[in-house]
Amino acid sequence: MIYSQLIKLFSSIVLLAVILIGGSSLSLQAAVKLASYFGDHMVLQRNCNICVWGTGDPNTSVTVTIGTQSVVAHIDANGDWEAYLKPMLAGGPLMLAVKSGNSTVDVSDVLIGDVWLCSGQSNMQMPIAECVPAERRVANIPHPALRLCAVAKDWKDTPQLSTSIRWTVCSPQAADSFSAVDYFFADELLKDPALERVPIAVIDSSFGGTTCEGWIPQAALAAFNTNDLHDSMFGIKPSMLYNAMIAPLGKTSFKGVIWYQGESNSGHPDTYPRLLSTLVREWRKQSNEPALPFFIVQLPDYASQWDGFYWQWEREAQSKAVAAISDTTLIVGINTTDGFDLHPKTKLEIGRRIAMAVRHDVYHEQIIGSGPTFQNANPEGLSIRVTFDTRGDGLLNSCAGDVRGFEVAGDDGVYHFAQARIDGNDVVVQSDAVPAPKTVRYAWAAVPNSTLINKARLPAAPFRTDDFPYSNIEVQNEPISHQMTTSTYKMIVNGEGMVTSFCVGEAQFISNDPGMAGGSSIPGAFGPIALPDEQELGPQLLSCSNENFTFFIKYEDKSMEWHFINRGKDEVKFDMALSPRVVINQEKSHEVLLKCKNSSVTLTGINSITDSDDDKKIEIVVKGNTVKDLVLNIN
User: Fold this and answer.
1) DSSP secondary structure code for residue 434 in this structure
2) Contact (CB, 8 A) for 442 and 450
3) Which helix (H) or strand (E) segment is 591 a member of?
4) 377, 405, 371, 411: which is closest to 391 by C-alpha?
5) Which of 102, 254, 372, 551 is most buried, judging by how many CB atoms fall within 10 Å of its CB?
């Protein structure tokens, strides 16, 4: 009896051990995984071999199936695998299924079409939500065959195999927070009749404030002098952006790459052509596409210096890089903004120009894809004849009168603005101040007043025929401003609807530091939000507005009333940066006394105060769909 019970107990123990061992064996089997690039609603590149990769149980196999295709791949000793699907025609939706042992991963709603990688810094990153209202309305339609892919913004010390990547079906809501340049490029691209049935994907892998060298693999930067390499903002070292935001894309096949960057390298224009050439070579090597098309957006108008240089020199560096790299195209960026904003809120025209070039160069559509291109310049006595390649689209002047933007110099090398007239595919340029011109420049300024275009309304690119060293002298008109003066105070509101000066007697109460550190501002993700619609509603009334917000000012001799009208649903903060000399005295929660020299101002209606040696600021918070009042009494 006892023996029988011992036998049963032993058998139970053995059975339990078998179950535990078997269970442990199963738990040790690695679940098959797809790389982070693969997700629901994605697009795979048509007409080329498609690499699918991931991880799984070492030394086993994995089966990848899509449509009628099914391929088997080996999982190596490290648990890594990759499989190649044969080229597929545009279409879908399909299911991508990956199976290894008892583990399966499915990716649904997969389309086959054209995939565009879009990268760069803040002007590539800026979302549609930050654009002017007229451009935001363009994005207010669904595009079910357009897919938006966002790569998480990150940086790493070493190349990563995965990161956070999100695929989305394009809708007005999804587009609002997506890159404006990416969206407007794709929207214009879809106007090509040949792409009517081709799904399109735009992958946004951009990060504001970053240098070109941040996007290049470390091994490729070993050939550079370390003094020629610079960190990005936030202390991001060279290669770190590549490691986190490009390396995880693996061997993905693309139709092409859009690159909009250069602002953070404009202080070092001499090194940029080599850096950009290296980036293009390395990205092509990673995707195993030696002729992968690159479209390089040349910097638009902007007036302020960047580490001592104005942007015409970085534009030249970008142009030199494109000329030296095969299968690259320059997208001219001038004449798309007024030049007063590092992050212009107008991106529609940039997107249109990229798409026009892509439709011509990649899809071989019979359209004009670029503006007139400089060919040569020949002195003819009192003038210089400049010849352009117009690709049969002719030359036009976008304004009345002479073509603007040309300047000529003689033996002394001193440039003078010149009169210019179109003569066929040539422009004849001359200046009374230069009787024997030798060299010519066009659109050679940070904010050039240039007007030469073609019938497709695409601008001629900046160029020069001299080889003079850099000269950093720039003259630019400021935006129109309003100055209000009474017996007790003087205030200036600039053309963007922001207060830039507020003086009482001899005391300046507003900080004069540039950008968001000075004056008043409505902070946005990409700089101050402008209120450009200015209207004088009466001799003592001024209104500054955009689509959602109005800053209304009523002037009296010894007081002012500021009314903030927020028609949007989101809260808006209005900041006023104060001069460091201002003394702040707050006795009531919504009232503050400001003193400077022998003058003082009482403010009623504020929300919060920052008072430190480095930062003195008044903040007014205006909730959605409300009106907020601020009263200023001059003492």
Assistant:
1) B
2) yes
3) strand 591-596
4) 371
5) 372
Q: Which CATH number fits domain 482-634: 2.70.98.50, 1.10.472.10, 2.20.25.90, 3.40.350.10?
A: 2.70.98.50
| Contact yes or no for 572/522 (Cβ under 8 A) | yes
Dig out the tokens for 49 from the structure.
Answer: 């071999």
The pLDDT of residue 224 is 97
- Write the CB contacts of 157 (distance below 8 Å, at least 6 apart in sequence): 240, 243
Is 265 in a helix, a strand, or coil? Answer: helix
- Amino acid residing at 412: D
Question: Torsion angle of alpha carbons 374, 378, 380, 381, nearest 10°?
Answer: 110
pLDDT in tens, 512-564: 765 446 789 998 878 788 898 899 888 889 999 998 999 999 999 999 999 99
| 8 A C-beta contact, residue 253 and residue 201 | no
Which residues are CB-neighbours of 551 under 8 A, at least 6 positions away? 497, 531, 543, 544, 545, 562, 563, 564, 574
- CATH annotation of 111-361: 3.40.50.1110
User: Looking at the DSSP assignment, which residues form a beta bridge with residue 70?
Assistant: 65
Residue type, 581: R
405 and 417 in contact (C-beta within 8 Å)? no
pTM of the model: 0.83
Strand order of the β-sheet with 426-430 is: 373-380, 383-389, 426-430, 419-423
pLDDT of residue 51: 97
